[in-house]
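Example 9 (inverse folding). The structure is encoded as follows.
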């Protein structure tokens, strides 16, 4: 099958930049990509036009999957060269129809949408019109009125193209946007996968092939996040980088603004508090703003007023004017040999691992689901989550900033199991993805750590150079945040652990090991922690643990797959966490927040059932265990100054405020 470019030869790895750990060198080195990727926001100088809704769609089911390119489907309306169906955007296409061949489709699908562009955008040649795709899984090519404007590899990060010139060429016709998306995964994509051709005619139909993957979630595909058009003046604010710090009651906002299209740059940078009052300002493109009586950004449940956000408004003046307002939080992050510190105070992660996953929508961004999930996180008393196993939508990180939910931001380096995925081409792509991820997420106060991979084969010999390179590169991009990857390998054979700042370990005692034997958990978990700590003297997060439970399945005494068994697994883990968190364990993240869809297989019953909520977000028994625990942890770890807090919906006695 034609994977069109997924196997193309790539340029050699770019030289690494080792930044000195000093804030100004940070600002000088973050993101070697050309151009910024600021989230599109409306302002007095910028319009945003959302293209969410119904698009026209066709999967290219031709044997080679390349009919669309042979017949140039992008040159005219899709409906003119074959049958089309309605397809909502954003959404995965897989679960939208009754057609299993579309659910399990491999290859190119085609989306199209015609847009009427406001006349003012056409007439005013002093504005840029930018087409932005929030994410398209996995490899995509974009045309506007038949002309290719963008190509992007990678399924979880945004990309853009300036299309003003093109749409002005023929202002009388609507602007036709065509996007072809291919979900094929290869040994060099992130995540990796392989295509297996089944050539035995006695067993499989002619031309039969399957996609093999090495990760445990359904490879949903399509236009997963919003597609939109936005405008900027031709002289515009292209990027902003912010690094924050504080001393006593003074906050410091180190910022750098990058401007494009202006001959001379004249700027006004204003920092506003959340009442809209100016607290500091400057006219320099790069500098430090001093904030007296600073309100720090604190995690949820750590402080009376968590998630305090300021607004950094950048106003470019001169021939035209551009205004961009970036929400920022002032906080610091630091790691010692036994602690994770936020604003110099010990922070204990009591949270979850998630997936972007729900009925019908698959991995499509859905506001009701996002808000429901945040309500559940807060109900649970969770203060954090990991974006297992790929970057989540920016809209979700913005919610984290606003609600004080701390994030371990993971790149899609999941399932790196085959030795061929440790080659130069894979590494180069992995470095590129980290560049894109840091460029997009560097200014989120909620993001406190980068995870470069999940459970790679980190005991294989090439893993040492691979992870050393990757982690050093990520630290050079952003020396202000710790970097890790998630391991399930043997502590003594793990090749990348010397380079991480924090050890993140996944383990499934009494599930994948010693199934049914709950009694082994205390000893095995204790041994796990002691081994890792004694060898590396770095703080440890239990980044995954859990057990499948089919909602409504019961057994006492507990048996695997029942709600009781899931509960008891958790309780056994918690007893050990309570001993070790007094020493060097700095977090516990349950696997998983909610049940989620996987490929079909003999160990999965309509998906992975390790959720403490069902896929429809209803609680299993384990959710109540975790809720009690998280609120009790919150009451033990919140700052002493905070004594007035009474949680809403509180029913448990331990939720009462602590006495001074
Ligand atoms: C872990 C993986 C996660 C799986 C989980 C499981 O990191 O993606 O879903 O196992 O098997 O090892 O439930």
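The amino acid assigned to each position is listed next.
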């Amino acid at each position: 099958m034609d994977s069109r470019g997924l196997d193309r030869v790539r340029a050699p790895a770019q030289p690494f930049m080792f930044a000195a750990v000093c804030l100004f060198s940070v600002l000088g080195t973050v993101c070697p990509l050309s151009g910024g990727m600021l989230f599109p926001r409306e302002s007095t100088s910028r319009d945003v036009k959302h293209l969410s809704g119904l698009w026209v769609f066709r999967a290219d089911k031709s044997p080679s999957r390349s009919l669309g390119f042979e017949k140039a489907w992008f040159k005219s309306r899709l409906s003119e060269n074959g049958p089309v169906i309605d397809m909502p955007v954003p959404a995965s296409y897989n679960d939208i129809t009754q057609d299993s061949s579309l659910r399990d489709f491999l290859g190119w699908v085609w989306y199209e949408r015609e847009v009427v562009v406001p006349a003012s955008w056409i007439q005013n040649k002093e504005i840029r019109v930018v087409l932005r795709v929030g994410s398209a899984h996995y490899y995509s090519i974009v045309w506007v009125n038949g002309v290719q404007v963008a190509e992007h590899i990678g399924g979880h990060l945004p990309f853009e193209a300036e299309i003003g010139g093109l749409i002005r060429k023929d202002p009388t016709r609507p602007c036709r946007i065509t996007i072809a998306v291919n979900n094929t995964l290869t040994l060099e994509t992130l995540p990796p996968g392989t295509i297996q051709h089944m050539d035995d005619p006695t067993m499989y139909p002619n031309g039969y092939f399957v996609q093999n993957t090495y990760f445990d979630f359904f490879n949903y595909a399509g236009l997963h996040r919003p597609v939109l058009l936005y405008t900027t003046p031709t002289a515009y604010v292209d990027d902003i980088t912010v690094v924050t710090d504080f001393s006593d009651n003074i906050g410091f906002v180190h910022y750098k603004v990058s401007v494009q299209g202006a001959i001379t740059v004249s700027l006004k940078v204003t920092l506003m508090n959340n009442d809209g009052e100016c607290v500091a300002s400057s006219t320099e493109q790069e500098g430090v703003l001093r904030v007296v009586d600073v309100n720090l950004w604190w995690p949820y449940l750590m402080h009376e007023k968590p998630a305090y956000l300021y607004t950094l408004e950048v106003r470019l003046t001169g021939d035209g004017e551009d205004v961009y307002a970036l929400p920022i939080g002032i906080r610091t992050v630091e790691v010692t040999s036994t602690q994770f510190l936020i604003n110099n105070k010990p922070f204990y992660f009591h949270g979850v691992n998630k997936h972007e996953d729900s009925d019908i929508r698959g991995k499509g961004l859905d506001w009701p689901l996002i808000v429901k999930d945040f309500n559940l996180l807060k109900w649970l008393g969770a203060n954090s989550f990991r974006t297992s196993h790929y970057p989540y939508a920016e809209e979700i990180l913005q919610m984290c900033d606003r609600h004080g939910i701390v994030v371990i931001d993971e790149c899609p380096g999941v399932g790196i199991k085959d030795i061929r995925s440790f080659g130069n081409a894979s590494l180069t792509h992995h470095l590129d993805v980290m560049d894109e991820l840091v460029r997009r997420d560097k200014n989120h106060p909620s993001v406190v750590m980068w995870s470069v991979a999940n459970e790679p084969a980190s005991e294989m010999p090439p893993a040492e150079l691979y992870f050393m390179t990757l982690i050093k590169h990520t630290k050079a991009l952003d020396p202000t945040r710790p970097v890790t990857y998630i391991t399930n390998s043997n502590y003594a054979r793990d090749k990348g652990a010397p380079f991480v700042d924090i050890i993140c370990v996944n383990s499934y005692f009494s599930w994948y090991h010693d199934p049914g034997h709950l009694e082994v958990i205390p000893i095995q978990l204790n041994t796990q922690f002691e081994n890792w700590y004694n060898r590396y003297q770095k703080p440890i997060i239990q980044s995954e643990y859990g057990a499948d439970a089919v909602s409504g399945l019961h057994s006492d005494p507990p048996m695997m797959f029942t709600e009781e068994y899931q509960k008891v697994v958790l309780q056994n883990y918690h007893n050990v966490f309570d001993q070790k968190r007094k020493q060097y364990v700095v977090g516990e993240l349950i696997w998983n927040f909610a049940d989620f869809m996987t490929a079909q297989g003999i160990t999965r019953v309509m998906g992975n059932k390790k959720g403490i909520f069902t896929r429809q977000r209803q609680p299993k028994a384990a959710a109540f265990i975790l809720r009690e625990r998280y609120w009790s942890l919150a009451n033990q770890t919140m700052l002493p100054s905070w004594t007035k807090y009474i949680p809403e919906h509180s029913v448990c006695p331990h939720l009462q405020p602590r006495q001074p």
